[in-house]
Design brief:
Blueprint: E1 3-6, H1 17-25, E2 27-40, E3 45-49, E4 56-63, H2 69-80, E5 92-101, E6 105-113, H3 115-118, E7 123-124, H4 131-134
Antiparallel strand pairs: 1-4, 2-3, 2-4, 2-5, 2-7, 5-6
Length: 135
């Protein structure tokens, strides 16, 4: 897989150094949403999936060449605090998700907030758009 849905500090308008890394190593192909809930965790947001499809999280879809996939994912995993060998201690988990874009639908990677940590942190962002609270 060579695509990623981003909803928080990796979005292009946030101007975070890791967002700039993504822009330099991938290209944005669309904007869209996933079914989920978004919380403001202070310096960054966290999302979880909504299997009942009642709430949306807005974001951007990025794609990169397969040749670069391992190195890009390695950098992003480190940034997101994801360790595939120790998910219990990972703040974010890398999962795959269906994204409903403006120009089509995609199956992408996504970093979701660890569901066990979700309950006790942050405030729900009702719009599902991190830009509403970050800019």
């Amino acid at each position: 897989m060579n695509s990623l849905f981003v909803y928080g500090s990796l979005r292009s308008k946030i101007q975070h150094p890791m967002a700039q890394f993504l822009v330099k190593n991938a290209y944005q192909i669309d904007e869209g949403f996933i079914y989920g809930y978004l919380k403001n965790m202070g310096p960054y947001p966290g999302a979880i999936l909504d299997l009942e499809q009642k709430s949306r999280v807005l974001g951007e879809v990025y794609q990169w060449n397969e040749i670069n996939a391992i190195s890009i994912l390695s950098v992003l995993d480190h940034y997101e605090g994801y360790d595939c060998d120790n998910e219990e201690e990972s703040e974010f988990l890398r999962r795959t998700v269906d994204v409903y874009g403006n120009c089509g639908n995609y199956h992408c990677y996504l970093y979701v907030y660890h569901p066990e940590w979700w309950k006790d942190k942050g405030q729900i962002i009702p719009s599902g758009n991190y830009l509403d609270v970050a800019l």
